[in-house]
Amino acid sequence: MLTIKNLHAEVEGKKILKGINLEINKGEMHAIMGPNGSGKSSLASVLAGRDNYTVTEGEVWFNGKNLLDMAPEDRAREGVFLAFQYPVEIPGVSNLNFLKTALNEIRAYKGLPALEAREFLKLTKEKQQLVDFHSNLMNRSLNEGFSGGEKKRNEIFQLAMLDPQLAILDETDSGLDIDALRIVSNGVNKLRDAEKSFVVITHYQRLLEYIIPDFVHVLYNGRIIKTGTKELALELEERGYDWLKEELHLKESV
Amino acid sequence: MTSDMILPFYQALTEDVNALSAQVPSLATDTLQDVRRKALERFSTIGLPTLKTEAWRYTNIQRYLKEFPYELLSTASCVPEDVVNSTAIPELDCYRIVLVNGHLQAEQSTLPQGKGITVGAMSAHTTAPGFAAYFNEQQHLAAESMAQLNTALFADGLYIELAANTVIDKPIHVVHVYSCTAHAFIQPRHLWVLNRNAAATIIETSIHPETNTIAFANSVLETVVMENAELWHYNVQQGAESFREVHTTAAQQHKDSRYHHFNFTLPGTPFTRNNLSVALNGSHTETNLNGLYIASKHQHVDNHTFMDHIMPDCNSNELYKGVLLDNANGVFTGKILVHQEAQKTNAFQQNNNLLLGTKADINSQPQLEIYADDVKCSHGFTAGQFSEESMFYLRSRGIGEDAAKALMVNAFSHDITDAVKVPALQHFLQTQIAEIMNN
Ligand SMILES: Nc1ncnc2c1ncn2[C@@H]1O[C@H](COP(=O)(O)OP(=O)(O)O)[C@@H](O)[C@H]1O
Ligand SMILES: [Mg+2]
Questions:
Q1: How confident is the prediction along chain B (439 residues), in pLDDT tens digits per residue?
Q2: Per CB distance under 8 Å, which residues of B are interface residues toward A?
Q3: CA dihedral in degrees (B383, B389, B395, B399; nearest 10)?
Q4: Does the beta carbon of A49 lie under 8 angstroms from any beta carbon of chain B?
Q5: For residue A111, what is the domain's CATH number?
């Protein structure tokens, strides 16, 4: 579904991604871990099309199409979704209006008619329950005055509404208490199926107790330095990242 | 005098303003001779605004006056019902009043009726109590030569007077039709008086149906909001390419009164200058001045506002927001004058702009003159583009760039449109804004 080959990217002249290779197939759950500043959010941003990043080398293919050639909205319409680490607040744009616009733009791209008001509301109700997203937040301005947890739930609620093929969750767990974490993880698990793939970026092993990954990758200094299964996450929790860094230095000095 | 001897309008304005009076037949029998003569003298003394006139530094009105060979037009012709109907605001339950070139069209209007309500042509009410007391009484008009020109030469307009304790049950929608068969300079004059405890909502819109002739309106409206009265006043400017406008509103408020003014300027008319002044002649008043201007192409929109805090314990709140597309040019002036007697004044002003066109431009100047010491006053100005973070967020959800911009402009203007108290009008404006941004 997604193939990343030797991806290099920089921001403001600073090299951030230094040769990422990653293959994600249908139905897979990938976790990306790594210390702060290693480039996890940058990778998510490049995939979603944030334009302050410049790709200097490499390719990204999504269902056989060149993702890097597409505008951010077309990537979303093709089925890529990014749950932001820091969702923005947009005063004056109502959550509901925003979602309706997004959904209908995606539908139009696929040649589908706009959803009728009643169908839209039905869908909204159903997906709200999935992440326990309070309906009184629906009529408010997008994320304005939302608590950290409400913002993160809103991201997952949008994910449920827009039903993408590939969802990238950037530290959706940070700032959530244990109950909220459980709710959000349950929501994500219910969305999993054989057609959909996920990339969850996280600092903590605890999320991966709820969302069981097929693969765990460690991103460090703009590169994936280790790939394993969920046991790798446990090992990182116990031992930290230093042993990996050392391993890396040994390899590089050879 | 035969018509081929008439001086061209612009030449008469600058060289022989007296020659203009002869072109308005109704003036010969009019009872306002003295007022008009003085106004004409004053106009001649001040002269047409130039770029050296302090209040017109960023707006070259002469350029627009010279642009076409205007004729002074003081009469009205019939305008078909479908033209008038095209100005309807969907779902708005209102009294519709139609004026053509300032002249009331009784057959096309539904006048509110009832005890204490006087609504009619200015020309028919020159002896009404409100007219006698308040016509041309606003001192702010004296400084403005375009208003003097209007006083000297206007033919007619809309007179509204509500007696004490009179409340109009539905909004009044005043439809200004400017219609002409040759390029015309048209000068309507209106006076609205709300006596003690009276209340009304008045919505103004305008239309110039012809596309091959240019109409230039120089209108003046005086509003008087007496003790504890309340006026909600909306002006929606959605003029055609073939329309030009200088729109002067001079309001005065008395003790405990509330005046809510909304001005919406949307794309279309290449030249709009709004003069708005509010004189607070009583204490404990509330004034809200809200403006939203969205301008495109080579449009020039100038909002010139003046809050005159004469008496103590008054609150005024001014918020003007602008969205400047293409090569549009915006001007905002916010003068706040707090007199020495006006202690405990709260006067706030804010002007925010989105500069979206590559050649769009805004000149914004607050002018605060404060002579009282116990006051709270503030002003602020911003000009910027869309936040990139917000744009990326919307686009990352599949929303195309144009639709995202439309959402953002709606968001930018929402505090103005949210304050509109007439739901049908609010919905109409939101729809208009969305349509403008989607085109
Ligand atoms: N807009 C930017 N300008 C300059 N440097 C940036 C910018 N965004 C991110 N960076 C840098 O890129 C590196 C990777 O950041 P990020 O991708 O956010 O890491 P992570 O998500 O793994 O914590 C950091 O050193 C960060 O300072
Ligand atoms: Mg990050």
A1: 344 456 788 888 888 888 888 888 778 778 898 999 999 999 999 999 999 999 999 999 999 999 999 999 999 999 999 999 999 999 999 999 999 999 999 999 999 999 999 999 999 999 999 999 999 999 899 999 999 999 999 999 999 999 999 999 999 999 999 999 999 999 999 999 999 999 999 999 999 999 999 999 999 999 999 999 999 999 999 989 999 999 999 999 999 999 999 999 999 999 999 999 999 999 999 999 999 999 999 999 999 999 999 999 999 999 999 999 999 999 999 999 999 999 999 999 999 999 999 999 999 999 999 999 999 999 999 999 989 999 999 999 999 998 999 899 988 999 999 999 999 999 999 999 988 988 7
A2: 387-390, 392-401, 403-404, 407-408, 410-415
A3: -50
A4: yes
A5: 3.40.50.300
A210 touches chain B (CB under 8 A): no
DSSP letter (8 states) at residue A114 = P
Angle between helices A117-131 and A148-162 (to 10 degrees): 130
Contact residues on chain A for B412, CB-CB shorter than 8 A: 92
Q: Within an 8 Å CB–CB cutoff, is residue A84 touching chain B? A: yes
**A45 in any annotated domain:** no
Q: Is residue A46 part of a domain?
A: no
Measured by CA distance, the residue closest to atom 25 of ligand 1 is A37
**Whole-angstrom Cα Rg for chain A:** 18
Query: What's the token pair of residue B323?
Result: 């969205």
Residue located nearest, by CA, to atom 27 of ligand 1: A37
User: Do B267 and B295 form a contact (C-beta atoms < 8 A)?
Assistant: yes
- DSSP-assigned letter for residue B419: T
Bridge-based pairing state of the strands A223-228 and B286-295:
unpaired
DSSP string, B15-52: H-THHHHTT-GGGGG-TTHHHHHHHHHHHHHH-S--TT
Smallest CA-to-CA distance from A149 within A127, A171, A180, A170 is with: A180
In a domain, A44, yes or no: no
Beta bridge partners of B324: B295, B355
Helix, strand, coil % (nearest 5) of chain B? 25, 35, 35
Asked whether the beta carbons of B70 and B214 are under 8 A apart, the reply is yes
Total domains present in chain A: 1
Question: CB within 6 Å of ligand 1 — which residues?
Answer: A 11-12, 14, 16, 34, 36-42, 52
Q: What angle do CA B406, B408, B414 make, to 5 degrees?
A: 100
CB contact under 8 A, A162 and B397: yes
**Minimal CA separation from B288 to chain A, in Å:** 20
Domain annotation covers residue A43: no
Query: How much of chain A is in helix, strand and coil states, percent to nearest 5?
Result: 40, 30, 30
Chain-chain contact of B399 with A105 (C-beta, under 8 angstroms): yes
Q: Which residue of A has its CA nearest to B415?
A: A92
What are the residue boundaries of the structural domains of chain B, listed by start? 71-386, 387-439
Q: Domain range for residue A190? A: 2-38+51-253
Q: What ipTM was reported for this prediction?
A: 0.95
Residues B182, B183, B185, B191, Cα dihedral to 10° = 70
Per the listing, tokens 């969750």 go with A169
| Whole-number Å distance between alpha carbons of A62 and A7 | 14
Q: B422: distance to nearest CA of chain A, Å?
A: 19
